[in-house]
Amino acid sequence: MNNKRLFATILIFLLFLSSISFGQSISKPFVYGDLLPDAPELAARGEYAVGVQTLDLIHKNQLDILNYGKGEDSLYNRPLKVEIWYPTEAASNELISYDEVMGQNGSPTRPLIPFTFLGRATRNAKAVYEKEPFPLVIVSHGYTGSRYLMTYLTENLASKGYVVVAIDHTEATFRDAAGFQSTLLNRSLDDLFVLNEMARLSEDQESFLKGLVNADNTALIGYSMGGYGAVNVAGGGYSPQAVQLFGGMTGGSKALLRRSVGNPEFEASIDPRIKVIVAFAPWGMQRGVWNAEGLAGIKIPSLFVAGSKDDISGYEDGTKAIYEGAINSERYLLTYIDARHNTAPNPPPAEALEPGRPIDEYLRYADSVWDMRRINNINQHFVTAFLGFYLKGNETYKGYLDVNANPEAKEWPGFKPRTTIGLEMNHESPKD
User: Fold this and answer.
1) For the segment 259-270, what is each residue's pLDDT rounded down to a tens digit?
2) What is the CB-side half-sphere exposure of residue 355 using CA atoms within 13 A?
3) Which fold has domain 35-428?
């Protein structure tokens, strides 16, 4: 082969490699939580790479409400699987595959179908240990759902210096959905148990959480039934009407009475370690779960997020009514105009878009008006600002929340020009 032909062959080979590389850059996957061009400022990831681990917890001797009255004591050991995201020493965020299912346990029309989706974290990576431990964020999914329902947010917060633990609420996940009574009773109890477990593990010499997490400085984030639980944990005791409804469903009204307004046991259970809540589309107000006295019991800062056309939890008589009734809370209400219930989940997986799939698999994640990727970016922005100010005490974040402070401003702080269309933010200070 002469020199000219050799040079040409090498050139063609290099161009071939270049074309492969270029093609890969074009086809780079959009991972849940990645930024769209119009993402607001605080949606970007923070300074830390992210590690992730799975733990199996057991909440012993809990009331087995689904088998209430069938046994001598109706107690069981309640398993809870949790996923923990945290700052890591890993050099960068690598792609990770999460195992999930669509469908719903026990549904003849929605069989369980396994699928995977990508995130940006490193499994079992070594944690970063700073001089002070990181604040704790507990994340609670809806009915049905899973600990992976909001990875766009859990990974994002971990990258900003939080330890984030998301719960698989037993008998309320896609895989093991069972009677709704279990969710009504156990949601707030699961949250408080996980808080106690994180506090215990933060002192356990054998746990990677030792010295990593500060359970005394905790945020609780909940979506739908997760929001229902968050409102209760924050001090919103259930109403007598809710207790009666629960008793009629199960014969076990005493169980919910322990979490009701005015009950001394409930009042004693309000945990000062939980400093703030974020409630996405919290369920229950339309059903009379709270009254004015109950909502007045919320005394910690609260961020409520909802769609104005929410047909599951309601808006005017649902999330907005909770926001208006929480008169003793420093509170915000972020509204997605014309969105329905799905203001918190990841976008729909590719498998939900396949022809022949039940539309419910798509609608479990999607909104008919809003791009879920955009909702995700906006949630990342405002949750970052809310936790940054109220949990970490960083004053610079306050301006990102008080979007209406300057009537002359054309755009909200941190938003690109012409990108706040369809959004509304309300803010109220405590009554006294």
Assistant:
1) 999 999 999 999
2) 0
3) Rossmann fold (3.40.50)
Helix, strand, or coil here: 57?
Answer: strand
How far apart (Å, rounded) are the C-alpha atoms in residues 83 and 14? 44
Q: Cα 157–160–162 angle (5° rounding)?
A: 60
> pLDDT tens digit string along 93-134?
789 999 999 999 999 999 999 999 999 999 999 999 999 999
pLDDT digits (tens, 9 = 90+) for 340-376: 999 999 999 999 999 999 999 999 999 999 999 999 9
Reported as half-sphere exposure (CB side, CA atoms, 13 A), residue 97 has a value of 5
Contact 230, 270 (CB under 8 A): no
For residue 111 the two structure tokens come to 């069989």
Query: Which segments of 258-302 does DSSP mark as H helices, in order?
Result: 264-269, 292-295
Question: What are the domain boundaries of the chain?
Answer: 35-428
SS3 199: helix
- Sign for the CA dihedral angle at 137, 141, 147, 148 comes to negative
Alpha carbons 215 and 217: distance in angstroms, whole number: 5
Give the separation between CA 288 and CA 98, rounded to whole angstroms. 37
**pTM of the predicted model as reported, rounded to 2 decimal places:** 0.93
Whole-angstrom Cα distance, residue 365 to residue 347? 6
